[in-house]
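Sequence only, no structure available. Ideas?
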Amino acid sequence: MLLAEPSRTPYDLNFQVLGFPVRVHPLFWLVGLLLGFSGGTNGISLIIWFCALFSSILVHELGHALMIRRFGRDAHIVLYAMGGLAIEGRPTGGDFGSPWSFDSYTEFNPRPRSPYEQVLISAAGPGIQFLLAALVIALVYATGGHVVPTFLPIPFPIPHLGGELAHNANLHELVMDLLYINIFWALVNLLPVLPLDGGQIAMQLLIQHDSWSGTQRALWLSVFTGGAMAVFSLVVLQQVFTMMLFASLAVSSYLTLQQIGGRRPW
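Reply:
I predicted one. Tokens follow.
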């Protein structure tokens, strides 16, 4: 959801997953805390929320990173604010954001990504989240439980654990959080709003025939979709934070259009 890698801080958490260096910026925890409290959670519920949020966002970025590796490049991951980045290259030392480094490759000359590659890389993040949600649902059924679909105000599966686990409120809350993040957030991320993954996919598809007109169309699509989602979030979902997010993304796309002198291409 982000475009630029944040600067390093003394409070970053660093580790590796599947050979990918991972850095967690302090703002990831702060924004996660704000999102947790906005849902009325506290105590053990807040810990459960962080477990679901951290694992889900990490899996999302791993989806991007694995697809980057699939096309013959290395990558590293940064979790920041309410999202993250999967960035080509290995991180280097320094006090600021790590630039690309291909020192681990011999005579490696990076080439621009093809539109086909970029679409698959962008789609891999939400795609692997859907797989995680499917795994969670499968585990619910494995306990003897079931899932009831609801459609108001949005389609969403409500899990009901079976057996002795049916009375475990904390586990039920964890399953609910995992499904919410890996279904609802993943669907939202596929909307054609820049710089979300859906916006990146729309951009690549629209520029295939005309790079200049396609860029403008992708930005206008981002403006209209972002504005519509802002209204939907406020009126239907009654989520002020989501409304502000999409409103800011729509304004950002509109300002970009003004900078490039874009006119409505329809």
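Residues 94-109 have pLDDT under 50 and may be disordered.
Hope that gets you unstuck.
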